[in-house]
Write a structure and sequence with these properties.
The structure is a single chain. This protein is an alpha+beta fold. It is built from eleven helices and 13 strands. Helix 2 runs parallel beside helix 3, helix 3 packs across helix 4 and helix 6 packs across helix 8. The radius of gyration is 21 Å and the shape is globular. The structure holds alpha-D-galactopyranose. The site of alpha-D-galactopyranose (GLA) has 13 residues, from helix 5. Alpha-D-galactopyranose binds next to helix 5.
Length: 406
């Protein structure tokens, strides 16, 4: 989950092109380290269409890699240090390779995502090298578009390419995921790193998180556009609340296993199973489990509708997902609810929901292309009237996975 900073201060959903990102990191690399980079690499962020909070509950998710992400200029060095700079953070982090094994220093903030990934990638390929890197982004930070997975995947991809190791993309995603859990301490599932590493242009990734198997589902560009609306609401304390949800779901699963039957994941149970243990669960545990179990049904029906080209039914599942995420999972907020509510009143809008972990950040609106101006205008006005802030809007293009920027 994106958590490099608690404040989402991005003035607008920024629009630096790949070329601009490439020149900015190359130039900054030269001025920071006095040499040329070996290469510039890019990894995307993601939105999730359905399957809210199902990845760490052993369910399915349906993310789409987007055309925004993080670029990094990298060079391997023949010394035992790692130096990192981000154009978003104005801070140079320098550590020795030996320190990778030491205690994690929270003051290093965003750099811990890079350091954790580098440590695990080096372990996987059986060698450690010093390196320098500079990052820039056109993805809003801490807004639910997974800037953390993008920086992990770009790091794993770049180091793998420069070392010529040939680690498969699925394993680069797993390394990024482990870095976030073991090094940064967020108990997230595998969705974000898989979406960033395995994104395919024009497609959503239907990922079965227990088996780690997936299928690409085509998105018809002419019929549906994904508009992302940035509420600019800070996701303060999101990590703590996120880890609380993980714990509540694990508790509900343990009770279901003990009292009903032993299934591998919370997402595998039925509503009838849940009814059998209702008296044994706290109100929160019951609500979280009800969201997970009903969301599994929504994603299966939603994928079938999407494959059949039935956007109205797909959109209905998306809206139902938002309601369940808000009421049972309790990770929405007034700003996200307003965007969903106001946009769904408009004709030719098929659905809307919060994306990512919630607690602030961005919502997605699934609209027919010619409805987009009206969504901007109507939702923008209501939002401004109620919260006194202008939300950010951007139509996202389903993009590919990580790549070198030439
Ligand atoms: C964050 C986490 C993901 C996933 C989503 C919620 O983005 O990083 O693993 O759990 O929240 O669907």
């Amino acid at each position: 989950m994106a958590s490099q900073t608690e404040q989402n201060t991005t003035p607008n959903l920024a629009m630096k092109s790949d070329d601009t990102l490439r020149s900015s990191v190359l130039e900054s690399f030269r001025s920071a380290y006095g040499v040329e980079a070996d290469g510039v690499f890019f990894a995307p962020g993601r939105v999730n269409l359905l399957g809210a909070h199902l990845d760490y509950n052993g369910g399915d998710v349906l993310p789409v890699a987007v055309d925004l992400g993080i670029a990094g200029a990298f060079a391997l060095r023949d010394r035992d240090t790692i130096r990192l700079r981000s154009l978003q953070a104005d801070q140079i982090v320098e550590i020795s390779l030996e320190d990778l094994d030491g205690k994690i220093d929270p003051a290093r903030g965003w750099a811990n995502y890079v350091l954790g990934t580098a440590k695990l990638l080096f372990e996987r390929v059986g060698q450690r090298r010093g390196f320098d890197a500079v990052f820039d982004s056109n993805l809003p930070m801490a807004a639910g578009l997974s800037s953390s997975a993008a920086i992990e995947v770009v790091t794993a991809y770049a180091l793998d390419a420069l070392l010529g190791a040939g680690v498969p993309l699925v394993d680069l995603a797993r390394i990024g995921h482990r870095a976030e859990r073991e090094y940064v301490g967020v108990q997230c599932g595998i969705m974000d790193q898989f979406a960033s590493a395995l994104g395919r242009e024009g497609h959503a990734l239907w990922l079965h998180c227990t088996q780690e198997t997936f299928e690409y589902v085509p998105l018809s560009k002419g019929a549906l556009q994904i508009l992302v609306v940035d509420t600019r609401k800070s996701r303060k304390l999101a990590e703590v609340a996120f880890n609380d949800r993980v714990r509540e779901c694990a508790e509900a699963h343990a009770i279901l296993r003990a009292k009903v039957r032993d299934l591998p994941a919370l997402a595998d149970y039925t509503r009838a199973d849940l009814a059998d243990v209702e008296a044994d669960l706290s109100i929160e545990q019951h609500r979280r489990a009800r969201h997970v179990i009903t969301e599994m049904r929504r994603i299966r029906e939603g994928v079938a509708s999407l494959k059949a080209g039935d956007l109205a039914s797909f959109g209905a599942q998306v809206v139902a997902s938002h309601v369940s995420t808000a009421e049972d999972y309790e990770v929405s907020c007034d700003e996200l609810d307003l965007v969903v509510h106001e946009s769904c009143r408009l004709a030719r809008v098929h659905g809307a929901r919060l994306t990512g972990a919630g607690f602030g950040g961005c919502a997605i609106v699934l609209a027919e292309p010619d409805a987009v101006p009206e969504v901007r205008e109507t939702v923008g006005r209501s939002f401004q009237d109620r919260f006194g802030v202008e939300p950010g809007f951007r139509v996202l293009t389903p993009g590919g996975g990580p790549r070198m920027l030439h």
